[in-house]
Amino acid sequence: MYAFAYHRPSTVDEAVSLMTSDDIQYLAGGQTLIPTLKQRLAMPDALVDLGGIETLKGIRRDHVDGGDHIVVGAGTPHADVASSDLVRDVLPALADLASQIGDAQVRNRGTIGGSVANADPAADYPAAVIGLGATVRTSKRAIAGDDYFQDLFTTALEPGELIIEIAFPIPEVAAYAKFAQPASGYAVAGVMVARMPGGAIRVGVTGAAPYALRATALEVALAADFSPAAAKAVTIPADGLNSDLHATPEYRAALVTAMAARAVAACGG
Q: Is residue 49 domain-shared with residue 97, that is, in the same domain?
C-alpha cells in the first residue's frame, strides 16, 4: 500500500463535502477498490469510507414513483439482501441473485451501492437494475436504470455523486439465471427475466457485453409466448459481446438465450 488520507464520515452530506477533487474516492465494501489499491492500479490521495453512514443501510418496502418498490440502501451488504425476509417474500429473484454473488466473505463485505457504482461488466446486480427497471437514487437525483450503465466501468454518475439507494419495482414474477465463472463466481452471462405489473416483459443481461443491457429481442419473443422454448428460439447477435479466456462472443450469445430460458422456467413460464 501507499500513504493516503482516510476519512470516515457519519452522514451523506459530510461524505459528499469531502469529495473536493478527482483524486479522492469513495470506499464502500472495498471488494474491488482494496485489491486495486494494493496493485497500484489506482492511487487516490484520499478515501472516504462510507461504512459509518447508517442511513445508507437497510431494506424497506415503499410506494414510490407511482408503484410498489423494494428499496435497498446503497450500504447494504449482499448477504443482507440475500437473507432478508422481506425481499425473499416480495422479490425473491433479487434475494436469489444476491445469494449467488462471490462467496460468503464477499457477500458479507460487498455492498449493493459499491457494486452498482463500480459497474463491473460481469457483476450480478446490473442485471436486476436493468431487468426490473430500477431507479438509482443519488445525492443529486434519480437515474432510471435504463440510462445508468453507459460503457465498460462507466455509468451516468458524475464526479462526487453518491448512490443513496436503489428502488426496485415489484414484478408479477421474476427470476435470475447465471452461468458463473467457477473460480470467481462472476457471470459469464447472467439474465434477469421479469413480468411487470400490466404484463410488460423486461430482460436484463450482465456478463455478456461491456455493460449491462436490455435484451429487447427476448422481450418481444417472451411477450408473445412466455415460455422457455420461446427464449431458446431467439438468436442473439455475437457482435459487440465480450471475448476472453472464459468464453467467445458466440458462446456468450448462446448462453444469454440459455439463461433466459432457465429464468423463464423458474418463473413458471
A: no
Q: Could you tell me which of 131, 78, 75 has the C-alpha nearest to residue 101?
A: 78
Question: Which CATH number fits the domain that encloses residue 25?
Answer: 3.30.43.10
The secondary structure of 203-252 as a DSSP string is: EEEESSSSS-EE-HHHHHHHHH--SHHHHHTPPPP-TT---SSS--HHHH
Angstrom distance (rounded) from CA 52 to CA 38: 23
- Residue that is last in its domain, among 53, 76, 92: 53
- Cell reading at 225: 409466448
Alpha helices by DSSP H, listed for 100-178, are 104-109, 112-118, 125-131, 145-148
Percent share of the chain, pLDDT over 70: 100
| Closest to 44 measured CA to CA, from 72, 24, 15, 66 | 24
Q: Check whether residue 203 and residue 71 sit in a common domain.
A: yes
Compute the mean pLDDT over every residue in the chain, rounded to the nearest whole number.
96
43 with 89, same domain: the answer is no
- 36 & 75 share domain: no
- Give the dihedral sign, CA 121/122/128/131: positive
Amino acid at 181: Q
Q: Quick one: 37 and 70 in the same domain?
A: no
Residue ranges making up the domain that contains 17: 5-53
Nearest to 164 by CA among 62, 16, 29, 18: 16
- The per-residue pLDDT for 65 is 72
Helix axes 216-224, 249-267, angle to 10 degrees: 30
Half-sphere exposure of 183 (CA within 13 A, CB side): 2
> Is residue 81 a contact partner of residue 95, using CB atoms and an 8 Å limit?
yes
Q: State yes or no: pLDDT of 247 exceeds 80.
A: yes
